[in-house]
Task: structure prediction
Amino acid sequence: MKEEDPRWEQALKHWREAEAAYASGEFEAMIRAFERHLNILDSLAVDPAVPRAERRGAAKLVEKIDSQFRAHLPALLHRLAELRDTSPDADKRAEFADILVRATAQLPAASTARH
Result:
C-alpha cells in the first residue's frame, strides 16, 4: 500500500491553525493559514503523481470552499467594513481596513453594462 502524501497532513495542520487563529481573533494569521491550506489542496489537485481519486477529492474540496466563499463574500465584505469602522482598537481597525483593501483589490471589476 502506498503511503499517503504528506501534503494532506500539512493541509490539515494549516486548517487547524486557521481555526485556532479565528478563535483567538487573529484574523491575519487565520487568513495566512487558510491560504496555505488552499494552496496545498490546489497542489494535490493538479499533481499527476497523486492518485486520481485523491486529486479529485482535493479538487472537490477546493471547489466547495470556493463556492461557499463566493456565496458569502458580500456579507463578509460588509462585516469587514463594519469592523473597520466600529472597532474600538485602532490596530484592529487598521487590520480590517488592510484586509478589506486586499480583498476588494483581488475581486474582478464589476461590469458596468446594463443587463
Q: What stands out?
A: The two ends are 55 Å apart (CA to CA). The chain is about 80% helix and 0% strand. The helical segments are 6-23, 27-46, 52-86, 90-106.
